[in-house]
Amino acid sequence: MSKKIKVIGLYLFLCLFFQTVLWGQINSIGNQDIVSGEVWKDTDGNVINAHGGGIIFHKGKYYWYGEHRPSSGFTTQVGVTCYSSADLRNWKYEGVALAVSDEVGSDIEKGCIIERPKVIYNQKTGKFVMWFHLELKGKGYGPARAGVAISDTPVGPYTFIRSGRINPGVYPMNMTLEEQKLTWNPNEYEWWTPEWREAINKGMFVKRDLESGQMSRDMTLFVDEDDKAYHIYSSEENLTLQIAELSDDYLSHTGKYIRIFPGGHNEAPAIFKKDGTYWMVASGCTGWKPNEARLMTASSILGEWSQLPNPCVGKNASITFGGQSTYILPLKDGGYMFMADMWRPSSLEDSRYIWLPIRFDEKGIPFIEWLDKW
Ligand code: GAL
Question: Would I find Chloroplast among this entry's keywords (predicted)?
Fold first, then answer.
């Protein structure tokens, strides 16, 4: 073999070697950790835009749904986005799962406000059902509706079905007959006075909204072990959380619902169940500004809930580490992941994500501690 051929051979070998090694390395460099508060990019290198969202696990993959938020302004220009991942760290953009409509007068007309979308899978119908908070275009936060959409596949596109308030004409299960008979004129009350508080506790706004249906803003969904699903939402001017049972196809409400913590001013509910106990984390109502989270617990979803102290511990625990709860995801290893949004109202698309593991103290009470990465 001549010297020239040997050199070319060596050159080709080195090229092949470096290409294989480097290529392998480049491919294996994905996101290895969850780093809350940083800019998160999808596998195409674009910034992930999926706020106020939730995640489901289906056939070996996680699907993350969230609000697509613009760089300026507060209204919805795109819709609900979807990303998929096998490891919760590397997310592939799957497109717009629910798109706003160009049709003038549509409930989800471009320029409406779509917030806090959540998706659940219905075992019986084989459909993916999305519920979300909807405000009609040009109406501010007045309509306080819930919208529902459906798809045959997790990534969609989802077909919008309808929007409206909740359970018109029906009293909550835990409003007594005596309370149902009371009448109030809400205009006569000054907010936060003892008389007003008493009226709120007894259901002044439930009664005011009885015919139109209950208001529904920040929301989440929960599917129980018996496959019954529940819609949990901030109602009654964000003063009171309500928990409403969904029909077997998850597309409507059955009329069974309760109020919890009347006047408690709880928003951004996120729920999970562990060993038969339900745990809910919520925020207070300070708009985009972070506040102290609340923990609530119950042994039956439709009944008696009790309040516990802030589940966050450590630095910035009194402001939920700068975030606001949105969802709690059960993990494959039996753990739970707390998801929150670090809102940036000056440019909502730049809002960040906080994902942290939920831990349990010696009494089995959940708590959340900041981790730089995990
Ligand atoms: C927050 C709420 C967000 C959004 C915002 C609007 O309290 O959690 O989802 O509605 O108010 O100001």
Answer: no
Note whether residue 51 is domain-resident. yes
Mutation test residue for ligand 1: of 67, 75, 215, 217, the one with most atoms within 8 Å of CB: 217
Would 48 be classed as within a structural domain?
yes
Residue closest via CA to ligand 1's atom 1 equals: 287
Report how far ligand 1's centroid is from the alpha carbon of 166 (Å): 19
> What is the count of structural domains for the chain?
1
Residue 48, domain CATH:
2.115.10.20
Among 113, 220, 235, 288, which is best to mutate for testing ligand 1, by the most ligand atoms less than 8 A from CB? 288
**Domain residues for 149?**
40-164
pTM across the whole model: 0.92
Determine the pLDDT at residue 31: 77
148-158 confidence digits (pLDDT tens) = 999 999 999 99
Question: Is residue 252 in some structural domain?
Answer: no
Of ligand 1's listed atoms, the one at least distance from the Cα of 113 is 10
Counting from 1 in the atom list of ligand 1, the atom nearest the Cα of 238 is: 7
Which pLDDT belongs to residue 26? 41
**Residues with beta carbon inside 6 Å of ligand 1?**
52, 115-116, 218, 267-268, 285, 287-288, 324
Residue 68 lies in a domain: yes
